[in-house]
Write a structure and sequence with these properties.
The chain is mainly α and about 475 residues long. It has a domain at about 45-55 and about 80-240 and about 350-440 and about 450-480: Serine Threonine Protein Phosphatase 5, Tetratricopeptide repeat, CATH 1.25.40. It has helices at about 40-55, 60-70, 80-85, 95-115, 120-140, 165-185, 205-225, 265-270, 285-290, 300, 350-360, 370-385, 390-395, 405-420, 425-435, 455-460, 475, and strands at about 70-75, 145, 160, 250, 285, 345. Strands 1-5 form a two-stranded antiparallel ribbon. A two-stranded antiparallel ribbon has the order 2-3. α1 (about 40-55) runs antiparallel to α4 (about 95-115) and α6 (about 165-185) packs antiparallel against α7 (about 205-225). The longest helix is centred in the N-terminal third of the chain and has 22 residues, at about 120-140. The protein starts with about 40 loop residues before the first helix and ends in a 7-residue tail after the last helix.
């Protein structure tokens, strides 16, 4: 199996120098003293940065996940995604997944969270929730990461690494604390309620923030399903979860202008001159995904037909010199909607599928099949597919298995892969690691899909607390819940 040729990866002083400004907002606070910002300024910047790192362009987590779950490939006339699809994980492989998360969104959320003015309790709660959102992904992707000593800036530029299990345990505590802050602030005229201007995700709807926190807790607990975690008391609290019509979006004001388009559209859609963006012509469907979606009405929303035909054609990954992009299906109109489309933070379909699995396992109350079917309908709606076709789809390839937990989990995770395709591919890769579903192809000559990324080189060089790595760790050293 191909292994990493170099060791390393980075987070230079993760916590030392970060900006709470962003050109998108033209906010000009000091980049070395982010504490001088206000929660009203820092929160929307951080939220915009969350979209960038989660579902943005070529180097986003979304792109990597879509490649590693075999949804996307490069057309034969493009030399794209080579390191990703040959698992050539060097020390410089996607270091921004680690460094940018700390230095941009999480640093700004941390600044807001540390605000001691009680009138900003709702802002503190939102920031706790979003830090938990990011930290879960860091653990899922890297394993142990700086957590308890993080964000001390010049007071500690070499933070200790904490175990993924310890971080996961504290994330539940922090999310619960956020929910408690929201509950205590409800109806308190002295507590500032965020607005659509200062909260670009949920416009100050604190009840929705509490449900989002509960849904994140459910995701954290289910990640640990294979290592025997069965205590779901922290989510069985009467708050509920994100339901139908409750997708968490983020739109900081995307417009058709240079540097201000939705980052997914900007990378894979059209430029402001209405010509294909840099990655648009190169990115194509795989032959595997086209075959898997053959009987799924969402295929024409996830991918585009070839030219003026009604044909959908994919290509195996790493087919340099193979069929040209013009003869293959690109990313579809249900994913790439417009320059002004919002970023997706968590789909209602994902939340309903989390609930379906938890109900199937007996961890929460609810009808697993009904939740599963509702999730599929929500996915159709999100993608702009014909919802009238849902009953027929459920009667055929989308039917919920009525017996056998393993078959039910397989169906649930497969539907999650379809629902998140194009918008949150990293979640599909992580769930593949947990469950083995769907059974996607592995790169030729390889034994398995990578189970983690390595720490960036700068972090290894600057922070002596960085865990020692072996080149094979990307394949043989899974995160704690994947053992």
């Amino acid at each position: 199996m191909k292994r990493i040729k170099k060791l390393g990866i980075a987070v230079f002083s993760v916590i030392a120098l970060a900006s709470c400004s962003d050109e998108f907002y033209d906010v000009n606070e000091s980049q070395t003293n982010p504490d001088f910002s206000t929660p009203e300024l820092s929160l929307p910047v951080a939220q915009k940065q969350t979209v960038d790192i989660l579902s943005g362009g070529y180097n986003s987590m979304n792109t990597l996940g879509n490649l590693w779950t075999y949804a996307w490939a490069a057309g034969g006339d493009f030399v794209y995604f080579v390191d990703e699809t040959t698992y050539n994980l060097t020390s410089s492989f996607r270091p921004a997944t680690f460094t940018t998360a700390y230095l941009s969104p999480m640093n700004n959320y941390d600044v807001v969270e540390k605000n001691t003015d009680p009138s900003y309790a709702n802002y503190v709660a939102i920031s706790k929730i979003m830090k938990a959102f990011h930290f879960q992904y860091l653990v899922d992707i890297y394993g142990d990461v700086p957590y308890f000593d993080a964000f001390q800036r010049s007071n500690n530029t070499t933070p200790a690494y904490d175990s993924g299990q310890e971080i996961y345990d504290d994330l539940i505590i922090q999310l619960t604390a956020a929910q408690d802050l929201i509950a205590a602030s409800n109806g308190n005229a002295d507590v500032i309620l965020p607005t659509a201007t200062t909260d670009k995700m949920l416009a100050g709807n604190m009840a929705m923030w509490s449900k989002f926190a509960n849904t994140l807790k459910l995701r954290i607990l289910l990640r640990q399903s294979e290592i025997g975690v069965t205590d779901y008391s922290s989510v069985n609290n009467g708050i509920g979860f994100l339901g139908a019509g409750e997708t968490v979006y983020c739109n900081p004001g995307y417009i058709k202008d240079a540097g201000r388009q939705n980052p997914l559209w900007d990378a894979f859609g059209l430029t402001i001159a209405d010509v294909p963006a840099a990655n648009a012509n190169a990115t194509r469907a795989t032959n595997y995904v086209i075959a898997q979606l053959q009987s799924d009405p969402r295929r024409s929303r996830l991918f585009a037909p070839v030219g003026t035909t009604n044909n959908f054609v994919g290509i195996p990954q790493n087919s340099v010199g193979g069929p040209n992009s013009s003869t293959l299906s690109g990313i579809g109109p249900g994913v790439l909607k417009s320059a002004t489309m919002p970023g997706i933070i968590m789909q209602s379909a994902e939340s309903l599928l989390l609930q379906s699995e938890a109900a199937a396992r007996g961890f929460i109350a609810g009808n697993a099949q009904a939740l599963y079917e509702q999730a599929i309908a929500e996915s159709f709606l999100e993608l702009g597919a014909d919802v009238a076709q849902v009953p027929a789809y459920l009667g055929l390839s989308g039917a919920y298995p009525t017996t056998g937990l393993e078959d039910q989990v397989r169906a649930i995770i497969t539907q999650k892969w379809i629902a998140l395709m194009g918008t949150n591919g990293i979640e599909s890769w992580i769930e593949y690691k947990r469950t083995g579903y769907p059974n996607v192809p592995v790169a030729p000559g390889e034994d398995s899909i990578p189970v983690r990324l390595l720490y960036p080189t700068n972090e290894v060089q600057i922070n002596p607390n960085t865990p020692v790595q072996s080149p094979s760790d990307a394949f043989n050293s899974p995160v704690f819940w994947d053992n």
